[in-house]
Design a protein that fits this description.
The complex is a heterodimer of chains A (145) and B (362). Chain A is 38% helix and 26% strand. Chain A has three helices and six strands, in the order βαββββαβα. Chain B has one domain: Cytochrome-c3 Hydrogenase, chain B (Orthogonal Bundle), CATH 1.10.645.10. In chain B, β2 and β3 form a beta hairpin. Chain B is an alpha+beta fold. Classes of the chains: A alpha/beta (145), B alpha+beta (362).
């Protein structure tokens, strides 16, 4: 079983921590977002052989975060994914696809506080409801005819 | 000064079975820069954990990828077991490793076949897939499925393989081994294969570290990292495990590492069949992951280290489940190897890295 080491950090500690792992030769194994209330939690995981450590950082929705991809190039995929799914904006990343990496049909679908996602879902539900009602009416007309 | 041109590559390409698009900036038939674009098959599978309970979600994880299907169900189950403190019975752990190593053999044979097809060696392609068919036969015999096995659950495995059937599997693998040696010799000694692979897509060791690549891609650049060597789960029963390495750092090295890993997986299965303990197949799993609980776990998939993260919220639905697949970690390294590559070598270069976009996008 992998070691379960989780540490909480603040945004102002992030760059120093990342640099420290890089200088010690650790690999960035993962970077991902998750929701905590209306905030986004970012998890940075570093590995060195069997060693594994995870840094947790809570950020506000829409808060800009310094990118780690200049130090860990493999992070460009994770950063763009977090941007697409959670709306987290990373500054200074290697490649910024501007929210069109996965091109989800709903903007930031994993972020519960995301207004565009909620509006999209509400309109999609209303459209599906209207379509179902329309079909029922059409069926009724046929049977009467 | 030569004129620069941008040539689109993919998402549909005869050599590449995966939907990845690349904008190749070309100067004198040489790639200066490659910009990848994916997003053609994003299915939002991670979001489904909020709608399916943690036991039912195992079946979704198997559908992330048609090649490492069993591996994903295993990685997910192990993560939830850590999250809930479940102890898996020893027999189940060994059966899991046996199915997982068979999946690696099937994945590597599939890839070796595609590689042979990529450089126009149709007969070699056919022979690789013919052997792979026997592994799919073992899956069908032991689980009823050839791609989706539905053999793993949170707590253990869904079905047993009798000790007699396990010995039968070793006999099948032994028979395959002799035939595979002939193919191995062709991959590693044939001049026409070497002409298409040697010197293609070089990624030196220090660059491999910088780009954080994993799996056979990293081991072909001399990085001795393989999660199996940590002895987790059923791998702990192995007498010894040494990752297969190459220092040549090119497409040929990546072919060599994978080709030799097929034999290594056969050895692992044979050793574990000798050592498999008797006992229960699954532990009883009750309750739900606690609110605020979290767990990480790693698994060596055929393409490399896969990272899993789960977060509980006190209900039977997970708060978050994340899979960082080996291909998403290897994308930056792949783009780096394309810089300076001849345009004609681009398909072979990408093929030797074997990106799985289906896994990457989930």
């Amino acid at each position: 079983m992998d070691p379960q080491v989780f540490r909480d950090i603040e945004l102002d500690e992030l760059e120093g921590q990342i640099r420290s792992y890089r200088e010690r030769g650790w690999r960035l194994a993962n970077l991902c977002g998750s929701s905590v209330g209306d905030k986004v939690e970012l998890l940075y995981s570093f590995s060195d052989g069997p060693e594994l450590e995870n840094l947790r950082m809570l950020v506000d929705n829409g808060q800009k975060i310094p990118a780690v991809s200049p130090l860990y190039p493999n992070a460009f995929v994770f950063e763009n994914e977090a941007r697409d799914l959670y709306g987290v904006v990373f500054e200074g990343g290697l490649i910024d696809y501007g929210g069109r990496f996965y091109s989800p049909s709903v903007p930031t679908p994993m972020n519960p506080a995301s207004l565009p996602a909620q509006e999209y879902l509400a309109s999609a539900r209303a459209a599906a409801h209207a379509e179902a009602e329309g079909e029922e009416e059409a069926e009724g007309e046929v049977s009467h005819g | 000064m030569a004129e620069r041109t941008v040539i689109p590559f993919g998402p549909q390409h005869p050599v590449l079975p995966e939907p990845v698009h690349l904008d190749l900036v070309i100067e004198d038939e040489r790639v200066i820069e490659a910009i990848p674009q994916i997003g053609f098959i994003h299915r939002g599978l991670e979001k489904l954990v909020q709608k399916l309970d943690y036991q039912s979600f195992v079946s979704v994880t198997e559908r992330i990828c048609g090649i490492c299907a069993f591996g994903h169900s295993l990685g997910y189950s192990e993560t939830i077991e850590v999250l809930m403190g479940v102890e898996v019975p020893p027999r189940a752990e060994v059966l899991r490793v046996i199915w997982h190593e068979l999946s690696r053999i099937h994945s590597h044979l599939l890839w070796l076949g595609l590689l042979a097809d990529g450089f126009g060696f149709e007969n070699l392609f056919m022979q690789c897939w013919r052997l792979r068919e026997r592994v799919l036969g073992i899956f069908e015999q032991t689980t009823g499925g050839r791609v989706i096995l539905n053999a793993c659950n949170v707590g253990g495995v869904n079905r047993d393989i009798s000790n007699e059937d396990l010995r039968g599997i070793v006999l099948i693998l032994d028979a395959m081994r002799d035939e595979y040696q002939v193919l191995l010799k062709t991959f590693l000694k044939d001049r026409s294969v070497a002409n298409r692979l040697r010197g293609i897509g070089i990624l030196p060791k220090e660059k491999a570290r910088e780009y954080g690549v994993v799996g056979p891609f990293a081991r072909a650049s001399g990085i001795a990292e393989d999660i199996r060597s940590f002895g987790y789960g059923g791998y702990g029963l192995l007498h010894a495990f040494e990752p297969i390495l190459s220092e040549e750092c090119d497409g040929y090295a990546r072919c060599k590492v994978r080709a030799e890993e097929v034999l290594q997986s056969m050895d692992i299965v044979a050793e574990l069949v000798e050592k498999i303990p008797d006992g229960a197949l699954s532990a009883k799993v009750k309750g739900s992951p606690a609110a605020g609980s979290r767990a990480v776990s790693r698994l060596e998939q055929p393409r490399g280290e896969c990272f899993y993260y789960a977060k509980g919220n006190g209900t039977k639905y997970l708060e978050r489940f994340r899979i960082r697949t080996p291909s998403s970690d290897n994308l930056a390294g792949m783009v780096h190897t394309l810089q300076g590559c001849d345009l004609a070598d681009v398909p072979m270069n990408i093929l030797t890295i074997d990106p799985c976009v289906s896994c990457t996008e989930r």
